[in-house]
Amino acid sequence: TMQNIGRYQNKSSFIEKRRDLRRNQTKAERELWLKIRNSQLGVKFRRQYNIDYYIVDFYCHELGLIIELDGWVHGEDEQKKKDKQREEYLKNKGYKILRYRNEQIKDDFEAVIQDILNHIQALRQTPPHLPW
Q1: Distance CA 100, CA 86 (A)
Q2: 96-101 and 46-51 as β-strands: parallel, antiparallel, unpaired?
Q3: Hey, which bits of 46-124 come out as E strands?
Q4: Band of the pLDDT at 6, cuts 50, 70, 90?
C-alpha cells in the first residue's frame, strides 16, 4: 500500500530486493560501506534503504542525506532519465543527494570521504526539513 509514502521506514515488500542489492554490492559500494558504516563519520548510515518508491544506496536519516554511486549503466540515456526523475522526486521531498561515480571511489577515495564529511558538517548546521 502507498498510504505510508514519505514515512521513515523500510517496506517489507522491498525486503527481498534490498537483500539482493546488499548481497550483490559492487566493489565501490562495498569499499564505501566499510568506511561509512558503524557511524565512523559521526552519523549512522543505512545501505540499500527504501524511501517511498526508491531504494537508495546509502542513507543517513538524521541528516536526510542520500549517497548514490553510479556504475557504467548510469551513463546510458534511459538510465540517466530515470536517475533524474528519481533525484527530482527525492530533492522535492527535502533530501540531500550526493552522487559519485565508481571510478571516483576507486581513484580518489579520500577526496570522496572528505566531500561526504564536508556535507555532513554543513547539514548538521542546517538540518533538513523532511516529511517525517
Answers
A1: 16
A2: unpaired
A3: 46-51, 54-60, 65-70, 96-101
A4: very low
Torsional class of 46: left (φ above 0), alpha (ψ -120 to 50), beta (otherwise): beta
Label residue 34 by pLDDT band (50, 70, 90): very high
Angle at 81 between CA 6 and CA 37, to 5 degrees: 50
- Please count the residues of the chain: 132
The Cα–Cα gap between 67 and 58 comes to 5
Structure-block grid coordinates of residue 52: 517511498
- Whole-model pTM: value is 0.81
Query: In this predicted model, what pLDDT tens digit does every residue of 101-114 receive, in sequence order?
Result: 999 999 999 999 99
The DSSP element (H or E) to which 55 belongs, if any, is: strand 54-60
